[in-house]
Design goal:
single chain; 351 residues; alpha/beta; DHBP synthase; Rossmann fold; five-stranded parallel β-sheet; binds threonylcarbamoyladenylate; binds magnesium ion
């Protein structure tokens, strides 16, 4: 299949392009589109065959449920039942935006979309292009991140082209993702609201609206969770990992820089391709040939926005060993470290 790539001008979006994307989706086709978190691989969430095509295009196991994307808050009433009052308060505060809510599934949503679950994940993105495409489709759009299963989520159209070209009808290029990490997922289907995936909206943010909110044990994991049945089914799968092994070096900054320099020098001497992943503040202190700065620790979104692109570049540049700093001192630390730990297969070194 030939994949059509179209570039959207964000200041003057071409309505014909948006309409075409909407038509493809309505007819059961697949369109990758930008959102403020990561690029999504969209298909009609109410058509079983479209959902099946999404799983096939990504190479994703079909018990890993999809998120349904909507353009209006009221749409939750079409997709979910027994909606708690809290859902409306959360929507009021965080939608449109990087929050996904888990609610009880309504009958129109096929099990093919929810991975067989009786609950449904719903998000209203803040990206205007995303919402325009959802509206133009006239339906609700199931959209996982637009990467091949196991690879880092795409934060620019080039990443989507790399993974899905030839597998889907259209890719809408809307530039770089603003946040760069997938949405925060909060499960409202149980007694106490539970965060299943940490993201831009933090526990502290949720606590402004919710009295009590807990974390799913998998979110707090610093070790592999093989034996635990994670509440968010996606969490049990291998994620984000580049081919090279990442080791996260944790501790006092001085000690971390020293240790990474030692380890990297040793590997380079042995002819191994080594990369260092760090913050802008310490970048100049590494002697290694390949040093990747994610940005300044003082800029909330720099580290998050650049993480997945860095992970992808390690494969492009055939890095065999990667030493990473820990990015604990930022508002988004929990979300960032959750992804980085998975990418490292939880390999850390304490100094
Ligand atoms: O930011 C995002 O959420 C992006 C953009 C495209 O919107 N989408 C995204 O989708 O990250 P995906 O498929 O990569 O992650 C969806 C995850 C699943 O792996 C699963 O962990 C969780 O959402 N999920 C979906 N439905 C669920 C449900 N009914 N119960 C529990 N977890 C669910
Ligand atoms: Mg994903």
């Amino acid at each position: 299949m030939e994949t059509k790539v179209i570039k959207i001008d964000r200041t003057h979006p071409d309505t014909e392009q948006i309409k075409e994307a909407g038509r493809i989706l309505r007819e059961g086709g697949l369109v990758a589109f930008p959102t403020e978190t990561v690029y999504g691989l969209g298909g009609d969430g109410l058509q079983e065959t479209a959902a099946a095509r999404i799983y096939a295009a990504k190479g994703r196991p079909s018990d890993n449920p999809l998120i349904l994307h909507i353009a209006e808050v009221e749409d939750i009433e079409k997709l979910a039942v027994d909606i708690p009052e809290l859902a409306y308060r959360l929507a009021e505060k965080f939608w449109p935006g990087p929050m996904t809510m888990i609610l009880k599934k309504g009958p129109v949503v096929p099990y093919a979309t929810t991975g067989g679950l009786d609950t449904v994940a719903i998000r209203m993105p803040s990206d205007e292009i995303a919402r325009a495409i959802i509206k133009a489709s006239g339906t609700y759009i199931a959209a996982p991140s637009a990467n091949l299963s196991g690879r880092p989520s795409p934060t620019k159209a080039e990443h989507v082209i790399e993974d899905l070209s030839g597998r889907i009808e259209m890719i809408v290029d809307g530039g770089n993702s603003d946040i760069g990490l997938e949405s925060s997922i909060i499960d409202l289907s149980g007694e106490v609201p539970m965060i299943l995936r940490p993201g831009y909206i933090t526990k502290e943010d949720f606590e402004q609206v919710v009295e009590e909110v807990t974390f799913d044990s998998a979110v707090l994991a610093t070790k592999p969770q093989e034996s635990v049945v994670a509440k968010a089914p996606g969490m049990k799968y291998r994620h984000y990992a580049p081919k090279g092994q990442i080791t996260i070096v944790e501790g006092d900054t001085e000690a971390v820089v020293k240790k990474i320099n030692e380890l990297a020098a040793e590997q380079e001497e042995n002819g191994i391709r080594v990369a260092v992943l760090c913050a802008e503040e310490t970048k100049a202190r590494y002697n290694c040939r390949h040093v990747y700065s994610l940005g300044s620790l003082k800029q909330e979104k720099e580290i998050s926005a650049h993480l997945f692109a860095a992970l992808r570049s390690f494969d492009t540049e055939q890095m065999e060993v990667i030493y990473s700093e820990s990015f604990e001192n930022t508002k988004l630390a929990r979300a960032i470290m959750n992804r980085l730990r998975k990418a490292a297969g939880y390999q850390t070194l304490q100094v």
